[in-house]
Amino acid sequence: MSKASYNFKDYIRVIPDFPQPGIRFKDITTLLKDGAAYRAVIDEMKAAVEHLKIDVIAGPEARGFVVGAPLALALGVGFAPIRKSGKLPGETITASYDLEYGKDQLAMHKDAITPGQRVLIADDLLATGGTIATSMNLIRQLGGEVVGAAFLIELAYLNGREKLDGVELFSLMTYE
Ligand SMILES: O=P(O)(O)OC[C@H]1O[C@H](OP(=O)(O)OP(=O)(O)O)[C@H](O)[C@@H]1O
Ligand SMILES: Nc1ncnc2[nH]cnc12
């Protein structure tokens, strides 16, 4: 199928009441299992962010890895993992945040970013923006410049975009 003929939303499965009542969960596994569609979303994201002159991509665990790592390879830049607290073996910095369904803490290695590097944050989905605001906070503490954020999906009704603080945002699919 040519890239232009993809309707990417057809590849997203919406599961009601997961992980708790009232949440309509956007499941990307139905997209990931289709190699051509997976490739097409990464190609589209690459085309959208190329102009930002990115030095490194940072992606939050776990779904940010399946978007951020292939995008980093496609752009020929490195990948810095942002992990849930307690998972990274080296010296870390941490920050707490609220999610659409709960609370968590994120961490980065202190040497994950070289001060002055231009960093793109990549994740599967923007909901309340808590994950991204926290990721931005960690990257900036390490001296990185957050030049953009790229997502497969944006849940516009949760207004996460407002937490992005002027950073350029790209989302492939929007749910109103
Ligand atoms: O905009 P927010 O309200 O912060 O929500 C979006 C985040 O929530 C999900 O991750 P989750 O923490 O559920 O972890 P997972 O990727 O390990 O499933 C999703 O992958 C985003 O990272
Ligand atoms: N509604 C949702 N679907 C999938 N992942 C999410 N992360 C936060 N909210 C989500």
From TrEMBL:
Keyword annotations of the record: Cytoplasm, Glycosyltransferase, Purine salvage, Transferase
Transmembrane segments: none
Statement: the UniProt record of this protein carries the keyword Transferase: yes
InterPro entries: Ade_phspho_trans, PRTase-like, PRTase_dom, UPRTase/APRTase
Catalysis: reaction(s): AMP + diphosphate = 5-phospho-alpha-D-ribose 1-diphosphate + adenine
Enzyme's top EC category: transferase
CDD domains: PRTases_typeI
Listed EC numbers: 2.4.2.7
GO CC annotations on file: cytoplasm
GO molecular function per UniProt: adenine binding; adenine phosphoribosyltransferase activity; AMP binding
Domain Phosphoribosyltransferase intervals: 30-154
Example of a GO biological process term: AMP salvage
Pathway: Purine metabolism; AMP biosynthesis via salvage pathway; AMP from adenine: step 1/1
Localisation: Cytoplasm
SUPFAM superfamilies: PRTase-like
UniProt keyword Cytoplasm present: yes
Quaternary structure annotation from Swiss-Prot or TrEMBL: Homodimer.
Family according to the record: Belongs to the purine/pyrimidine phosphoribosyltransferase family.
Function: Catalyzes a salvage reaction resulting in the formation of AMP, that is energically less costly than de novo synthesis.
Protein name as it appears in the record: Adenine phosphoribosyltransferase
Organism per entry: Paenibacillus pinisoli
